[in-house]
Amino acid sequence: MLELKNLYKTFNPGTINEKTALNGLSLSIKEGEFVTVIGGNGAGKSTMLNAVAGTWLVDEGQILIDGIDVTKLPEHKRAIYLGRVFQDPMTGTAATMGIEENLALAKRRGKRRLLKSGITSGEREEYRELLKILGLGLEDRLTSKVGLLSGGQRQALTLLMATLKKPKLLLLDEHTAALDPKTAAKVLEITDMIVNRDHLTTLMITHNMKDAIRHGNRLIMMMDGRIILDIEGEDKKKLTVRDLLDQFEHVSGEQFTNDSALLG
Questions:
Q1: For residues 256 and 121, what is the distance between their CA atoms, to the nearest angstrom?
Q2: N or C end of the chain: smaller count of CB under 10 Å?
Q3: What backbone torsions phi and psi does residue 213 show, to the nearest 5 degrees?
Q4: What's this model's pTM, rounded to 2 decimal places?
Q5: CATH number for the domain including 135?
Q6: How many domains does the chain contain in total?
Q7: Domain residues for 71?
């Protein structure tokens, strides 16, 4: 479903601030896989996700989504294949619009996004049933402005919107990092439920090793713009944070020093 072939991306080339963010990165993800991505600051995690989304184009390499070469497509033309949830709960929804209006926009994705004809009673009932699965009471607040929701409620709604049209690939960019631990756990529970229910191919960046181990069926660790660990199946199920640190130190020859990942 996703294939990254030998990707390179350098920011500010030829200057004192030159930074190689992707360094020959290759990755293949099968349909239905849920891959978590861990790595220290500057490892290239967000650069990889942004390269897939088309936020910026890579210098070299090839990106294929479901066999379609999207390497040179701009961000808005890739959006038809992707669902995305950002770290900031304020991103991904229209704060001044109601919950049902936001859902209507998500449902009309790929079509002309006009609300002139209003939201039908059938659509309203559909949204109410969808919101019930979140367990947050939002099904009784369809007309409430999204800007009035808590961070966790808003992130859960964004997740629902991103998956409403069952994208070929779901990108989760540290989507619980800005939430308190209890709320983050609830959003991750909802994430697991939606991904498993719809068999969505998912790429989730996290700064938390425990979350990377606990969720998904495959884990990759990045360092210096490339993948240094790729663990799946039974090996991932048996994995502990200590095991992961030991493997990192063995492969990289360094100690993992990202405190937020260790203590999150």
A1: 53
A2: C
A3: -80, -40
A4: 0.89
A5: 3.40.50.300
A6: 1
A7: 2-263
